[in-house]
Amino acid sequence: MFNNPFSLYTLPIDTFKDIKTGFAEVVSDTSVKVLKEEKYPNVYEALKKLEQEGKIRLISHDKESKLTKSDEMKMLENFVTFQKRNGKTFSKYDFEDMVFLHSNLLGHINEILLEENINNQIIKKEDLITILQKKLCLISTGLKNEPFLNNGIKVILETYPELENYVKQSLEINSFNKEQLKDLYAKKDEFLSKKDFELYLTGSVFNSLDKPAIIDFGAGHSIYRTPLAFYEFQRLMKKFKNIVFLVPSEDKSEALRIINERVAKRGQNNDVDYTKINRSHLESPCNDIIATMKICTKGMNSSLVASEILRRIQEKKEDIDIEK
């Protein structure tokens, strides 16, 4: 990005104002006339020259020298100011990129979240693995580039060395079918509908499995409205002995309320009617039909849910042994 030509424009200052974005910038509400244009062949070289002249300070993630504590706290302060401008509310998910690259700020970020009383949300150190896995997934599918991924991993391991095995496991999982996923997503526009593409993607991944695996479906990935598509999906799912359907409550009204609250905590796009989407997912019979076990997670943490899944699998295995 920085090894490219660019132009620096001189503009009249009259209409520019500080609108408190949290950054050292001013903004004009109206278009202005360019007074002068200065062309530079390379952005990075121009920035290095300004640094040599003492006019700016460059901080690179590639250098061994780290940000000072003061630098990081100022960066966090500016980020919060930017998020809160114009009354914008934010959630812990807005801090994901920052905490990934600066996991040593985890405690300070949680203090801010608690002070703002944002639905009692905090970021746990284990959440760093989830954030890493999200980034790896986006990279694998070609949907996003993460130029500072290795830097983030390095800081996480320096701050929380006890997470090393989880980081290694995440990287090993990501290497599975990486190129194949890129090729699949490259064909996305060739399909008439999103669901057609999802079925194609699911089938391609399933057919390439050559060892036991855990597949985590998104909310709508296992739901199909047309009988033919659902029939094909059922055929694909027969490959798995255990298909777990997790629900937050047996009562659909309560389940809808819980799911809506979880979506709201994520700070999702307010222009989307998630209640309508979530209700359609809950009312669909698809998951109930394909599941080999259904578990209500109400009142359970992740450890209890995992234990219950393992108990059901073992119970099922013992039943099979008895029948034999």
Describe this structure in words.
By secondary structure, this protein is mainly alpha-helical. 50% of the residues lie in helices and 7% in strands. The chain contains 14 helices and six strands. It has helices at residues 43-52, 69-84, 96-101, 106-115, 127-140, 149-159, 164-174, 178-186, 194-207, 227-237, 252-265, 274-283, 286-290, 302-323, and strands at 6-10, 16-17, 27-28, 36-40, 244-247, 293-296. The strands form three sheets. A two-stranded antiparallel ribbon has the order 1-4. A two-stranded antiparallel sheet has the order 2-3. Strands 5-6 form a two-stranded parallel sheet. Helix 9 packs parallel to helix 10 (227-237). The longest helix has 22 residues, at 302-323. 10% of the residues are buried.
Total helical segments: 14
Mean pLDDT: 81
Overall geometric form: elongated
pLDDT < 50 stretches: none
How far apart the termini lie comes to 64 Å
Q: What string gives the helices and strands in order?
A: EEEEHHHHHHHHHHEHHHEH
- From the helix content, strand content and strand pairing, which structural class follows? mainly alpha
What Rg do the Cα atoms give? Answer: 25 Å
Question: In summary, what is this structure?
Answer:
The protein is mainly alpha-helical and 324 residues long.
Salient structural properties:
14 helices; mainly alpha; elongated; two-stranded antiparallel ribbon; 324 residues
Q: How are the elements arranged and paired?
A:
Blueprint: E1 6-10, E2 16-17, E3 27-28, E4 36-40, H1 43-52, H2 69-84, H3 96-101, H4 106-115, H5 127-140, H6 149-159, H7 164-174, H8 178-186, H9 194-207, H10 227-237, E5 244-247, H11 252-265, H12 274-283, H13 286-290, E6 293-296, H14 302-323
Parallel strand pairs: 5-6
Antiparallel strand pairs: 1-4, 2-3
